[in-house]
Structure to design on (341 residues):
C-alpha cells in the first residue's frame, strides 16, 4: 500500500498516468503499459453493487500484479454503504489508493445517480466522500467531469468539497457529461480549476502524443495528466512523455512493432484465456494502426485471421513496411472514441 507521499513522489518522477478505460485497462494491459513506461495505473471501473452480490467477474476486474504498483482500484455505484465496503475490499487486496468514478456518462449509470450523475447533487457527493474516506486508511482520489452540462459546470465546487473531505487528488476530464466524448476537452477550464485548487489536480482529455502531454502539463500547472485513448494509438506515449519531461533523448521513431506484440502477447498469455487473447490482439493491433497508410485494409485482414499465428503474420507484414512513416493525427476517429469517464 502506498502512502500519500509515495503517490506524490510517483507523480513528481513521472506525472503521466494511465486513465481508467472500461473494457481496456484490465490486468494484462496495465502490466503491458507498466513495461512501456507509465507511472500510476488505475483499474477499469468496478461496480460496488457487483461486489455486494459477490460477482466473480467483478472481482476479476480488481486483480493486479506486484509490478503494477502504485495502482488504484476505481469503483462506482449509487449506494454509499456499498461504495464504502468496496473501498475496504480494495484496501484489503493491497491497492495503493481508491478512486471514485464521478465521470462515467453512460445513461444506465448516471440515471441512478452514480458516475457523473452525482455532479448534480453536491451534498450527496460530500457525504459519499466522507463515508468512503472513513472506511479506509489508504488515499482516496476521484475522477470527475467539468460538470453535468455547459450551464452547470461545477468542478470548482467539487474540488473544494474534495479538499474539505480529505481527498488526495481530483482528476478532471475536460468535458461535461452532456458532451460525452464529442467536442474538445476544455483545458482552459482545467487550468482555471487548478489555479484555485488546494489539492493536486490531474488533467485529462485529447492528449495524443508526448509533446501535447508535456505542453498540457506545463500550461495547466496540473500535478499530472491522464492519458487514455492516446496510448491505444501510440503505446510508446508514456515512455516518450517521460523522456521529454526528464529532458532525455526521445525514442527512435523506427519503432519495433514486432517486439511490441511479443510483449503484449506475453501479458495476455499470463492473464487471459485463449479466446480472449485472440480478441485482444486484434483489437489492439487495429488501434495501433490508426493514422498509418492502408490501416483500413489491414484491419479487414486482421479481423479475418483465425488464430494467433495468422494474426502475427498479418501484423508483421503490415507494420514492417511502416518503419519510416509518421503516424497521422486521427483524433475524433470513431473507433478510438469512448471507453472511459
Amino acid at each position: 500500500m502506498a502512502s500519500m507521499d509515495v503517490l506524490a513522489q510517483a507523480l513528481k518522477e513521472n506525472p503521466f498516468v494511465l486513465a481508467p478505460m472500461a473494457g481496456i485497462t484490465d490486468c494484462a494491459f496495465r502490466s503491458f503499459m507498466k513495461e512501456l513506461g507509465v507511472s500510476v495505473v488505475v483499474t477499469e471501473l468496478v461496480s460496488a453493487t457487483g461486489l455486494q452480490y459477490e460477482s466473480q467477474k467483478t472481482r476479476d476486474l480488481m486483480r493486479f500484479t506486484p509490478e503494477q504498483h502504485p495502482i488504484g482500484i476505481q469503483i462506482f455505484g449509487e449506494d454509499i454503504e456499498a461504495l464504502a465496503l468496496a473501498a475496504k475490499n480494495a484496501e484489503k487486496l493491497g491497492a495503493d489508493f481508491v478512486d471514485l468514478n464521478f465521470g462515467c456518462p453512460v445513461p444506465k449509470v448516471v440515471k441512478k445517480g452514480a458516475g457523473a450523475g452525482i455532479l448534480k447533487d453536491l451534498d450527496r457527493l460530500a457525504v459519499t466522500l466522507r463515508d468512503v474516506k472513513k472506511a479506509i486508511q489508504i488515499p482516496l482520489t476521484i475522477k470527475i467531469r467539468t460538470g453535468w452540462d455547459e450551464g452547470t459546470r461545477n468542478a470548482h465546487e467539487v474540488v473544494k468539497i474534495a479538499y474539505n473531505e480529505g481527498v488526495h487528488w481530483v482528476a478532471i476530464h475536460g468535458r461535461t457529461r452532456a458532451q460525452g466524448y464529442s467536442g474538445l476537452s476544455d483545458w482552459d477550464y482545467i487550468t482555471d480549476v487548478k489555479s484555485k485548487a488546494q489539492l493536486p489536480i490531474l488533467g485529462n482529455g485529447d492528449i495524443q502524443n508526448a509533446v501535447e502531454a508535456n505542453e498540457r502539463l506545463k500550461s495547466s500547472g496540473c500535478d499530472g495528466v491522464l492519458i487514455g485513448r492516446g496510448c491505444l494509438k501510440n503505446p510508446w506515449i508514456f515512455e516518450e512523455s517521460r523522456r521529454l519531461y526528464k529532458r532525455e533523448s526521445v525514442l527512435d521513431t523506427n519503432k519495433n512493432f514486432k517486439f511490441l506484440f511479443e510483449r503484449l502477447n506475453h501479458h495476455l498469455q499470463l492473464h487471459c484465456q485463449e479466446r480472449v487473447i485472440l480478441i485482444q490482439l486484434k483489437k489492439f493491433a487495429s488501434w495501433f494502426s490508426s493514422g498509418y497508410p492502408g490501416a483500413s485494409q489491414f484491419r479487414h485482414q486482421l479481423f479475418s485471421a483465425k488464430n494467433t499465428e495468422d494474426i502475427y503474420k498479418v501484423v508483421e507484414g503490415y507494420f514492417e513496411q511502416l518503419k519510416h512513416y509518421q503516424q497521422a493525427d486521427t483524433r475524433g476517429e470513431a473507433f478510438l472514441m469512448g471507453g472511459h469517464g
Observations:
- The chain has two domains: 4-245, 257-322.
